[in-house]
Structures are given as structure tokens and as C-alpha cells.
Amino acid sequence: MTEKKLWWQTGVVYQIYPRSYMDTTTSGMGDLPGISAKLDYLSETLGVDAIWLSPFYPSPMKDFGYDVADYCNVDPRFGTLADFDELLTNAHQRGIKLIIDWVPNHSSDQHPWFIESRSSRNSPKRDWYVWRDPKFDENGNKLPPNNWQSLFGGIAWEWDEKTAQYYLHSFVKEQPDLNWRNPEVQAAMYETLRFWLKRGVDGFRVDVAHFIMKDPALRDNPPAQIKGAAMHRSHGDAYDSQSHIHDHGHPDSHPIYKEVRKILDEYSQTSPRVSVGEIHIFEFEKLAEFYGTPEEGMEFHLPFNFSLLKVAWHAAQFRAQVDAYEAALPAWATPNYVLGNHDEGRIATRYGEMQSRVAAMMLLTLRGTPTIYYGEELGMTDVLVPPEKRLDPYGLSVPEHGRDRCRTPMQWDSTKNAGFSKAETDALWLPIAENFTHKNVATELADPRSHLALYRQLLALRKESEALQHGTYRSLDTVPNVFLYERQSENETLLIALNFSEKKQDLALEGNILLSTYLDNKANPQTLRPHEGLIIQKL
Ligand code: GLC
What pLDDT shows up at residue 232? Predict the structure, then answer.
């Protein structure tokens, strides 16, 4: 008997960056009613099961919404709470779950909590953030309390003239870190979860979840063993020169996420609520700790697995990551995979057009929950935003890593502004990719071999296939440059063969071809064509 699984264990999540999905107000920026208007696309055309929205909270937008000024409201630029409720109702009517972003590590410096906190050393909210006295060198010059660096460049401490102390900010200076060691902060933040759970949201994606607890003594980070080894993205020399053992990832975050899980469980009687953790930890044993344990308490349903984002396009490397990850997870844990998001280059640019089709087949056929980034289904590419139009604070400090390039507006059709907005083109918050004339929903819907056609078929197949939904995973030895694996359930065995090379590969497999990334009827289980992925049903 196949064990019954919950929606987040079999479903596909689709990430929407609200600023870039659909503009209904001609502001040049997307909004919540715009997402509501596209629900049929999501449920019928694509057939995804859940959407995750990047932040829509009131925000000064210093980090495009990840600087939250009110955890329990909607920024007027995105709409109103009523628009949110309508979106939720409309999504639920179509069977789509809604996951929202929760940003616990830091608020905006314009959040009333921080305004109060910085007003005086005696403020009742002083200890809601991380304030420290300066250190002094031998000449009496003021120094920050330790050597921690902001991920976005520069030291992680900002001097507050009025109260003569530094506050900690792991990201931009307008994103002060909350002090999660203060029980009042914990209680206030848990209330924000309840606020949205009561409204009916189906879960949270927890922003930089491993950052909330730091070394209580705020010790200096030691120098990096291997430069840049801690994170796959380079954050600049000063950041990469340290081993980040004290400024985040402290084990004290685990009890917090056990508590978060209890809150989610309280609201899960009618429908299971889910937490997805943004955790940039690449040692799988450590990442797996964020699932919690049945004995000591559960934590995240899905601690994001970012491992595939950091490997080069080689079959052996992808196989090694997937195998090691599968081996590290407890048997009851649901794996998850993601290949792109609002912080990373798009897969069609990172890997190439044909390769990204193979990547899509992999993403949607591995065991566990996949997350698709909006536009990935069209083969949307990065846009090199000209320096004068760049907005991302991260991109400003490390330009080659700027994230504007993967946040450009969704491409709906070949009309003005790709059908995203009726605003003047130069009023769009970010420019549209030039290739929108052919890479867009309308054009691709009319093309039976398009990227979109491939995603639709993959999503449909996944829904129908017992092996893809419930089956085991096992990788198989084969020729170099091919990643071959088997998904097996009680009544079905599928082989997935992914050619990572530009040459044909003779494999001599047998079975019925269910899908080729070429979307033609010329596929042959004996030979994979260049950059071809096949799903083969074993007879
Ligand atoms: C996460 C978000 C990123 C944001 C950062 C700070 O990494 O995905 O967009 O800049 O946290 O909140």
C-alpha cells in the first residue's frame, strides 16, 4: 500500500516575486491583485500545487521587502490586506496553497520596534535588537564590538550617534538584527505567525533561518580555512576571509524552530501548515538537523536544499550531491530541490537553453518537493541591468553578483512590456528581457515544443505518476556525462536519463518513453541525443 502523503510532500511549489509578476495599477511594479489575476495560469495552465510569495509587507524597500516595517500588513504598493485575503480565497478555491515569506532575523530600521529601541538606552525595547558598546584601540579610537561583516559588504555594525552604541545588522544597515535571545522578541514574532495562520495561510518560507541565533558572547569569527568555502556565493573579500562560526548558525536556533513547528501544528487540524527554511548550509548532516527529530521535536518540514545551485554542469557532480543528500536524510524526511530563486542567476543563463530543459526534468523527477522560480518555466534568462538602473543593494557592493538580473518582470505575451504592465516602459521597476518577444507565455503556449510545453508535460506526468510522487530514488552507474536514476514504487518503475553533454550517448536502455526534453516523437531509449533528458517507463 502506498502511504498517504501530505500536500507539501507531493506538491510542486512555485515562487513568485510579487514586484515582478503582474501589475494591475500601472505603477510599473507587480501587486497582489495581479497574482490573483494569474491564478488560472498557475492552476490550470501549469498545474502547480502551492505558491510562495516573497515579501509584500510594508517596507522602505532597502532590500526589496526583506526589510519589514510591519509584519502584519500589506505594503500599499502591493495592495491591501483585503487583496491578500482575496488572493488566498481565490487560490484555495483552485486548490492552490499559499506560502508566505517570514523574515525573523531582522526588521526594517523603520519598524516601530526599532524606532523605539534606538530612541534611548533605557527604552523598554532596547534589548529587542543587538546593541553593544564600542571597543577602543590603544589610541582611544572607537572600534566596532567585533569583526563580523555584513553579507552585503562592510562591517555588520552601525554606530548610533544619539545613544552612543553600535547595533548589529547582518545585511544592510537598514535591516537591524532582532535579538532572538530576548523572550519578548520571540513572543512578538510568534504572534506574527499566528496573525497569518489565522488568516489561513498554508505556511512560511523562513528567511535566513540559520541566522537568528549568534554566539552569545559575540566572539570574533576566526579566519577562513579555505577562502570562500563557507558559502557558494562570494560576498566580497572581507566576508569570505572569515569562517562564519559565530555570526550565525548557533545551535540555539533549534529550540526556536521547534517552537515555530508547534505553532504551525496548532493550526494544522484542518490542513497541514508547512515551514520551509532558507538555510545556506552545505554539510548535509548539519542541514538535516533542521528537520528536527520525532523524539526531540520537529522543526522545518522542508529545510531548503541549495546544494544543486553550487555545482557545475557535470552529471557526476549532480549525482554526487543528490546521492549524498539522500543518504544524509532520515528515512521519514521529505527531500526538496531548487535550482533558482530571487537571489541566484536564472538556470537558462547559468546552464544554457537546452541544458535548462534537462535541469527541469531533473528538478521535477527527483524524490521530494521541487520549487520552481517564476519564469523558469519559460526559459527566462538573466537581464544585465545597466549600472544606472541597478537597485539591488547586494549588487551594488558586489556588482557581478547583483540580483536585479533574475528579478525582471514576468513575460506574459509579446505586447508592450511583455503584458506585465500598462505603465510607460521606462517606468517599470526593472527592465524586461529583450527576448520577451518570443519567450513569453502566449507564444510558448502556441508552440508544442516550447519550454513551457515541457514544464506542463513534466508537471502533468508528475501528478499522474505513482513512482514520481511516492517512489524510491536510486542512481545507477552509466556512461560519464549521463545522470541516470530510477524512481520505483509498488506498481511503476521509471528511469530518468539526463545527458549533460553536447554529444549523443549510447545507453541501450529499454522501455516506453514517456517524455523527452526534445518534445518530439524521435526519442530512442538506446541513444540520448545531445542535452536530452528522457523519462522511460520500464516494462
Ligand atoms: C535572504 C533573501 C534575500 C535577502 C536576505 C536578507 O537571503 O532571500 O533576498 O536579501 O535574506 O533578508
Answer: 46
